[in-house]
Amino acid sequence: MHKGSERPIGIFDSGVGGLTVANAIRQVLPGERLIYFGDTAHLPYGDKSRETIIAYSARITQFLLEQDCKVIVVACNTASSNAIEAIVAEAGDRAMVVDVINPVVEQIVNKSGYRRIGVIGTKGTINSGTYVRKIIERNPHLSVASLATPMLVPMIEEGFIFDDISNAIIRSYLSKTELNQIDALILGCTHYPIIKNQISKYYNFEVDVIDSSRIVANSLRDLLINSHQLSSRSKSDHRFLVSDFTDYFQVISRLFFEENIVLEKINLWS
Description:
By secondary structure, this protein is of the alpha/beta class. The chain has helices at 19-28, 50-66, 77-82, 84-91, 102-109, 123-128, 130-138, 152-157, 164-174, 196-202, 212-226, 247-257, and strands at residues 9-13, 34-38, 71-74, 96-99, 116-121, 143-148, 184-188, 208-211, 239-242, 263-265.
């Protein structure tokens, strides 16, 4: 066993949406210990400037390195598309870095039968153009359409799911001409797996709806195996940290992680 293999995995997001990724990692890698940090004091990242997103991401990366994490999983599409170079530079040779965009791009470009791909996400993710650029670089024969869907995160966080209001908002976005005749739709935000079924239903289950969380978890498992860093534990205790706490975050965290968890508040900016 590699001596560093029992070190924890750090995961961060602008809020609690990244718990969908943490949940998938827990299922795929039950022996790994997770330290999750949700920057709830500064959410959403989707409407922040690139410089601000980089500054927040670098500070959180420092913190996770201080916790001796062997891998840092950037479970936030906005941070992945705007700050990944800064995060990798900060991590240096102390930790490996996994983002939520590259594993999805890898899967898309290697799948035969796709002609037109749709991407939905926050303004920050869509305006960065990262998905479009990376997919076209890898497969110039694909056509990629992207659409900012800024109301979906507050909708989910306010508990409007599986109802007429959420169905109306989803329908309003997905019916836009940008997303006409797509073969697959990338959910470019870690909140969106919560409404994956509603989105699939809108398309009568005829469009592949790509949820990054399981893809990222499988990619992380491959990375740990190839670098001999897989933990030998059978079960682990996890820590869930947030930069601001409300009872509401505690309640919706169950929706994302699929079990009761205790959020601890910690201020990295004091």
